[in-house]
Amino acid sequence: MPHSVKWLGHSACQITSASGCVILIDPWITDNPSCPVSKEDIGKVDIILLTHDHFDHMGTDIPYLVNGTNAVVIAQPELADVLQESGVSAENIIFGMGMNIGGQVEVAGVKITMTQAFHSGTAGSAVGFIIILEDGKTIYHAGDTGIFAGMELLGKIYPIDLALLPIGSVFVMDPLQAAYSLTLLKPDKVIPIHYKTFPILVQDASEFIELAGDKAPEVQVEALEPGQELLL
Ligand SMILES: [Zn+2]
């Protein structure tokens, strides 16, 4: 069975590995106008990765998702404290206290490294994640960020099979920065995320697709609709 990467709209993504490990990233489900599913539809979850505490990433469903599934949440310590105040047990937070940028943890055979992101946050800073599935397939979720030179290092350290990159501008990379970041990250494939959710964001992927074809023609752009999945 291949791995599945499903875009749930905005920054929310659901990865189901070939061996059945389910990873949710930034699960803003309830009140996400782009999300085609409800929290009750999610079912099994093993790992929840949270990039930062803005409402359009943290949402309000994490206590429900964790308590219903016994998933492990991976986030920075400051954010882990906030989650505990909202009803998430320390037993459902990695090491009971969270982790930080540069570190790698392994949960259910999946290796997760927290990476930097250039953005803001109230509790802790904003981050991204490198996700190495059981067979070595490597996925990068950038979180919310502008382009940064360290993306070149990430591209050198990790052979990225798939990058999940924000392209919506205003709060994150615009299509030009996102397209240029492909020359640094060197992924095989990219799924554009964090666009068209709000009227002020970029409304479609066409400019990104055109710029990516110009700057990094070797990268395959997979512009999904919310609810669609890419098999890896
Ligand atoms: Zn944000």
From TrEMBL:
SUPFAM superfamilies (alphabetical): Metallo-hydrolase/oxidoreductase
PROSITE patterns registered for this protein in UniProt: PROKAR_LIPOPROTEIN
InterPro entries the record matches: Metallo-B-lactamas (IPR001279), RibonucZ/Hydroxyglut_hydro (IPR036866), UPF0173 (IPR022877), UPF0173_UPF0282_UlaG_hydrolase (IPR050114)
GO molecular function annotation: hydrolase activity
Domain called Metallo-beta-lactamase: residue spans: 9-194
Pfam families associated with the record: Lactamase_B_2
Keywords on record: Hydrolase
Superkingdom assignment: Bacteria
HAMAP family the record matches: UPF0173 (MF_00457)
UniProt record similarity statement: Belongs to the UPF0173 family.
Descriptive protein name: UPF0173 metal-dependent hydrolase SPSYN_02651
